[in-house]
Amino acid sequence: MPLRPSRLALIPLISALLLTLLTPPASAADPNTAYLMAHFTGESATGEQIYFATSTDGLHWTDLNASQPVLTSTVGEKGVRDPSLVRSPAGDRYWLLATDLRIASGKGWDVAMHSGSTSLVVWESTDLVTWSAPRLVDVAGGIPSAGCAWAPEAIYDPASGDYVVYWATISPAGGNDKARIWYSRTRDFRTFSAAQLYIDRPGTQGIIDTQIIEVPNSTGGYRYVRASGDGQISVEGSNQILGTWTRLGDLSGLGLTGAQVEGPILHQFNGRNEWGLWVDQYSSGRGYLPLTTTDPANLSSYRIRSATEYTLGAGRKRHGTILPITQAQYNALNAEWAVATTRIQSYNFTDRFVRHANFDARIDADVSPAADAQWRIVPGLAGGGGYVSIESVNFPGHYLRHSNHDFALAANDATAGFAADATFKQVPGLADATGVSFQSYSQPTRYLRHYSFLLRLDEITTATGRADATFRLN
Asked: Which SUPFAM superfamilies match (predicted)?
C-alpha cells in the first residue's frame, strides 16, 4: 500500500513552495549602479586599517564614517593594508582580505619583508555593512623561508567552483631572495589548499600587487586581464586564470613607472564597456590616479584622467579595491556610515548661510540649489585630532580653502599646502560661545569670517569682526 501524505503534512510543503515563489531575486540579479572602495591611508596611528568610500560614477568619491576606519584589525599585527573585496557568484556573501602588517608599530620594512606575518586577515559579510570579527589565515607558512604574505586578492574560478587566492611572498629560491606571487584555492576562505607558485619574474626582478579582472565578452581577445608591479605596472592577458599569460605592455609609455606608482586596481564601469585602472602614486604621496580605457588589453588606449575629472574625498587613499554595488547597497552603506550634513548659518545675518556659487564662497539667503549651502564637517586634512575641514555635499572632494586670505571651493589636490589651507580648528564662537568659529590651521592668528557677504580669512580685533566670524551649525 503506497504511503500518502496527510493534509497536515502537506501544509509545510505548500508554505515552502509559496515562500520560494515570493522571495525576491538574489542581489546578484540587481543592477550595479554605484561603487564601494576599500583602502588604507598610510603609516599613521590609524592609517593601517580599513576605510570605505562610495561613488555613483566611479570617479568622484565620498568618504564614509567621517574619513575614519570602518573596520579595525584586532588580530595578528593589529594593522592591515592592501584590502581586497570579493563577492560570491550569487552575490549573497562577501569577503574582505588584507595584508597583516602594521608599519606604524616601528618594526621597519626589512623586518616586515623577511620576518613578517605569513597570514592574511579575513572579514566576512552578507550585506557589506555588518562584518564578522577578523580572523587570521596562514596561507604562506608552508613556503620555505617565507618572509611575508602581502596584497592578497581572490577571483572566482567557474571551472572548479572555488576561488583562486593569490598574494606576494618574499622568500629565497634559486639564488634570489625576492617577491613572487603564490596562490591557493578555497571555497569558504577558512580552509585553503597548500600554496603553489603562480608568477615568478626572471632573474632578480620581483613582483607584487597583482590583480586580475574577468573581462565580459573577452573584449580585446582575453577573458582575463591582470596588472602587476614588477618594476613597471605590467598588464597581461589570458583565457584561463592559471593558464598561460601574454604580456600586453606596461604604463611607462604614459610616463608612469614602477618607481612612481604601485597598487593597481582594475574594475569595469557599470553598464558600459569601459574599464578603470587606478594606480597609487606612492612616491609623491598623492594617492590614487585613474586611467580609463574601452579595451583593457590595449595599452595604447589607456587615458590618464585629469585632476578636474575625479575627486578622491577627504582621506588619502592607498592600495585598495573597487567593487560595483547596487543602489540598495549604496543606500545602506551611506545610511550606516555617512557623515551628517550641515548648514553654516551666519550669526549676525541669520537669514544667510555659507554657500558656494561658481566656486566662490559667500553667505546668501534663499540659496538655490539648496545643496550649495550644505557641508560635511570632516576630520581635518591636516593637523590631526581637533581639526576639521569643510567639504561640499554636492561637490565631494571639494573644500573651503583660503588663498591670499580669500576663500573658494577647491578640489583637494592632495598637496600639503592644500591640506593646511583647508583645515581649521573649530572653537567656541568669538561673539557667542554657543556658536562656532573656525581658526585657520596654517595662519592661526586668522579666522574664517564674512565681509560684504564674501568669505575671508582675517585677524579679528573688533566686535563686528567677532560677529562676522561666528556661525551656527544646523
From this structure: AbfB domain, Arabinanase/levansucrase/invertase
